[in-house]
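Office hours follow-up: a student asked to see two folded examples consecutively, so here they are.
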Amino acid sequence: PKLLSGVAIEAIDADGSRLSPRRSKTPEEMAEYVKRIFGEVGRSFFEKFEPIGIGEDWRYDGKRSFGKALYHETDLVHLSVFAR
């Protein structure tokens, strides 16, 4: 239920923007696609939000992907990245 509610919130945050159409990719194409997504994550500006619980909630919205991370003290607890 927590994962589903998190995905639902991300879908609402997408503000009705359309996701790119999917097609089958070769393993090589998929590896390159994942590298591009991770590169975007590394270059993205994350905004900090206060979570309901403990820690810090960090979110970003990129051209190819969007996601969020939960930090507690100096530890990354959770990271979700969704391709568009």
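And the second, which I mentioned at the end of office hours:
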Amino acid sequence: MNRFVGSFFLMCLAAPVATPAIAQATAANAQQPMSIVASPASKRDMAHAIIDIMFPPAQREAMMDKLISDMMTPIRQNMPSTGFTDPGLKALLNTFMDKVQAQQQQQIQKHFPELLDAMATAYTNAFSMDELRDVLTFALTPSGGRYLSRSVTLASDPAVAKVYSAMIVEGNALNKPLLEQFKTQVMDYLKAHPEVAQKMAAQAKGK
């Protein structure tokens, strides 16, 4: 689950926030002196200025919460229904998924500043000073700010989410026989190597 969350997170990076919030953040950045573009600022300063427009600091927490919510929705919808028709089991499953969602929210909130700083490093590695200045100049315009704010949210657009949901269903179907085969292979291996099974059992008790 954590690996899946991480992959999806890196794919979409943020979920949509309300248009007024984006507009306000973009306007605030547009009011900044254009001197930052002409100044001898470092490439890293340029990169962070761009990222601040993509992810307005005042909106980041809401963006991350929305990301997790949008990400968990198709997972919940495509959980295997077999065995969970009972109300009690459904309640247990929902509680489990709620806990997973809350845990992922805490994890992403914890590491998001680190991720943004890493993104700034990636920008400085990938683009020249002139290119970063061109991007920032565009970002400081209303259209540029809106483009950057929304371009990273398209993974949660209903059209994209529909395909993503279908991919989960297909992936589950494809993985099921592989998982069953893997489980059989593991059980056969442990039967053939009881010392490994004993070691694993001892390690489990030690935890």
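Two things to take away from it. Residues 20 and 26 are 10 Å apart (CA to CA). The longest helix spans residues 87-126.
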